[in-house]
Amino acid sequence: MTRAFREQSVSILPECVCRHLGKFAPCTSGMPPHRRSWKPCIGHCEIIWEIAEQLLERFAGDIDGELVGAGFLLHDVGVYRVIDGAGSPDRRNYVRHGLLGHQILRSEGFPEALRRFCSCHTGVGLTRNDVIRQRLPLPVADHLAVTAEERLVMYADKFHSKTTPPTFLTAHACAAHVRRFGEDEVEAFGALRERFGVPDVTALAGAHGQGVQEWRTGSDRRGPATREPDVSV
Predict the structure, then answer these.
(1) Are 43 and 166 in contact (CB under 8 A)?
(2) Closest CA to 51 of 202, 162, 179
(3) Is 200 part of a structural domain of the chain?
(4) DSSP state of 160
(5) I want to staple 156 with a disulfide (CB 3.0 to 4.6 A). Which of 51, 56, 89, 166 is the partner?
(6) Residue 139, preceding bond cis, omega within 30 degrees?
């Protein structure tokens, strides 16, 4: 992604977001009122694009790199509908941020090829059975990445978390997280790993002054897993 494309996207997206934050005060500064949450999210989007650039260098298949870049910048636009003015997430409805992002982009006239980056990047994909079994506040349908571009955005997104402070995750940490939702999710992550490879998150973490989580905790917690705000989804 060129610097000009990145800067143009970062300047336009806040205006799009502000028009859809009805429960907050009108945005007149070109940034959402809850500034603390905007910059980390944009930083996250740019970081996972850097992760994707590593993976694209080794990817032998046919893929549209410009479309991937647009997908990375747009995929989390719905986050701003599930956080409050202080930037705290609505834990029950955070899983809806992809669907809400899809709705925002549709109302803004974005094509379906871009809207799907929002609604199809959660976890390693959500099936209608996942929605029913986990009682998710989503339409009962498959929300799955299909194209190589969608799958790459979904996959690279797993390697960086918008926690405070933000952190990178190793492939082991990513696998441990998705295991909470079933072994089939681990298999799905493994298939993505085989197709796209594993990024060098240690080098990226050093460049950004962030930590690396070697192993995701909580993978063996009791009771059914729920899609609480996972800032790497």
Answers:
(1) yes
(2) 202
(3) no
(4) E
(5) 51
(6) no
pLDDT of residue 37: 57
pLDDT, tens digit, 9 for 90 and up, residues 58-113 = 898 899 988 888 888 889 988 878 876 666 777 888 899 999 999 988 888 888 99
Of 136-140, 221-225, 229-233, which range is least confident?
Answer: 221-225
Does 71 fall in a domain? yes
Q: Which residues pair with 161 in a beta bridge?
A: 167
CB atoms within 10 A of CB 127: 16
Between vectors from CA 196 to CA 195 and to CA 197, what angle results, nearest 5°?
A: 105
Q: Domain span at residue 67?
A: 3-156
92: left (phi over 0), alpha (psi -120 to 50) or beta: alpha
Query: For the chain, what's the residue count?
Result: 233
- Give CA 194 to chain center in angstroms: 20
Enter the DSSP assignment of 108: T
**225 part of a folded domain:** no
Report CA 9 to chain centroid distance, whole Å. 17
The encoded tokens of residue 177 equal 């997280």
CB-based contact 119:102 (threshold 8 Å): yes
If one counts the domains in the chain, the total is 1
